[in-house]
Amino acid sequence: MFHVAPSDEMYRDALAQANAPADAKAAAWDPSLTRFGADTLNERFRSRFGRAMTADAWLGWVAIKILWESSLRARSTDSRMLMQYMIRDGTRFDGHKGRPLSFRVWDHQLRQPLYVVSSGTDGSTRVIAEMPAAGSDEESSREALDRLGTTAARSACRMSP
Amino acid sequence: MSARRWLVVVLLPLILPPRTPTATTQASGLLFVSNELSHDVSVVNIATNTVIATIPVGGRARGIHLSPDGKRLYVAVSDDKPQLEGSADAIVAVDVTSKKVIATYRIGSDPEQFAITPDGARIYASNEDGGTATAIDLQTRKQIATLVVGIEPEGVAVSPDGRWVYVTSETSNSVSIIDAHVNKVVANLLVDLRPRAAAFTPDGSRAFVTAEVGGTVTVIDTKTRDIITTIPIDRGEGKPVGVVVAPDGKRLYVASGRTGTLSVIDAKSYKRLASVPVGRRPWGVAITGDGRYVYTANGLSNDVSVIDTSTNRVVATIKVGGRPWGVAVR
């Protein structure tokens, strides 16, 4: 089993680390995102389906993209081969979020940046922060993403890699 | 080095009185910078590193290349609304002497990157939202082919012999190889995440593809179409975008947006020789015909960094228009 949707801990950590206002929410995606090709993806979705790409829509899209790409790169449709590829060290995916996404070995959770979003009274949304914040130069992008969610040490999951 | 440039080098001593040795080794010519926000092209005298003219192009200027004879400048121009083909969406040709737009080529919506064939006859351009690449005959101004490539096509490069066109696609992480003789896609390769730009070695044996999210450059053997290796940029944490290969084929220069650096890489050993801090969010890169200077268009600091390739240091910073995107030099 793999978790593309962020865990509750990831949402909680994103809000806490951002010092977010009480009415703000953490989300995996927002239709107002523009950087790293987010604008193109949002526009493609809107022109095809006539509605904004919500976080749920993005999660569905990225899950299929990960499967499709794993199948191409692993040159297989066999589920065991796909799982091996997805969890392999060095395997990374692009979800139009700028940072490479990957699965945690210990709980098969997708590492990903989250957005702290505030909602206007008219239902519009505004991204006020991307979490985790960029770390020091020495910290890798993967290490930074592990600041959201359950660490290997704290995880109750025991998975064979 | 182009045939024309050789001719100039050979004929100059015959026409002009003898000059001091330093003068002849100096870069002399013009640098053109496309500005996304100010909708124009800055023209820089590279002997003095000063802006001598600004050419309005009527839209968001991105991809920028000179014709092989150096007489025409081609600039991809779009409106600020991608997806919908607006009246501004086109590749425009600018006469380098008069500095005026003299022709407009329609290539579909939101043109960004393109390449010119070495004979100067055609342009190949990517259409990001259409998932296609379009070939245009520059003489007749007609579209001669529209080819399905990957998802969100971006970078375009033509091999030095004009035979192969490489188109990178950001979402599908692929490079589509077009045979320009028959205008068909003959191969698709998977490269690293979010491929942005491609460049060939002068002998055409290797192609380099930057991967913005992968933080690497993929090296392709153009004969076997195998991936030889991937080169990490700034420990794999960089966001490599623009890439150029030196005219002698010995080095490649890669602009990395997030880290604000220009990586200098040995084109044979693929080792990093230097990481040069430049302006903020460098995108396009260009190198002079003599290989002496490299230029980066720095989108967030509204300037161009001039890098001396003999010392790998920034020797000048030139303020240009709003949000510079690409550079072309002759």
List the helices and strands and how they pair.
The complex is a heterodimer of chains A (161) and B (330).
Chain A: H1 8-18, E1 25-27, H2 38-49, H3 55-74, H4 79-87, E2 102-103, E3 110-111, E4 114-119, E5 125-131, H5 141-145
Antiparallel strand pairs in A: 1-4, 2-3, 4-5
Chain B: H1 3-15, H2 21-25, E1 30-35, E2 40-45, E3 50-56, E4 60-66, E5 72-78, E6 90-95, E7 100-105, E8 111-116, E9 122-127, E10 132-137, E11 143-148, E12 153-158, E13 164-169, E14 174-179, E15 184-190, E16 195-200, E17 206-211, E18 216-221, E19 226-232, E20 240-245, E21 251-256, E22 261-266, E23 272-277, E24 282-287, E25 293-298, E26 303-308, E27 313-319, E28 324-329
Antiparallel strand pairs in B: 1-2, 1-28, 2-3, 4-5, 5-6, 6-7, 8-9, 9-10, 10-11, 12-13, 13-14, 14-15, 16-17, 17-18, 18-19, 20-21, 21-22, 22-23, 24-25, 25-26, 26-27
The dominant shape of chain B is globular
The total tally of domains of chain A equals: 1
Average residue-wise pLDDT of chain A: 92
Strand content of chain B: over 45%
Mean pLDDT of chain B: 90
- Based on CA inertia axes, which overall geometry of chain A fits? globular
Q: Biggest sheet of chain B, strands in spatial order?
A: 3-2-1-28
Helix content percent band of chain B? under 10%
What's the Cα radius of gyration of chain A? 16 Å
Oligomer: heterodimer
Q: In which range does the helix fraction of chain A lie?
A: 25-40%
Termini Cα gap of chain B = 10 Å
Low-confidence stretches of chain B: 7-27
- Biggest sheet features of chain B: 4 strands, antiparallel
- Give me the secondary-structure category of chain A: alpha+beta
Number of helices of chain A: 5
Number of strands of chain B: 28
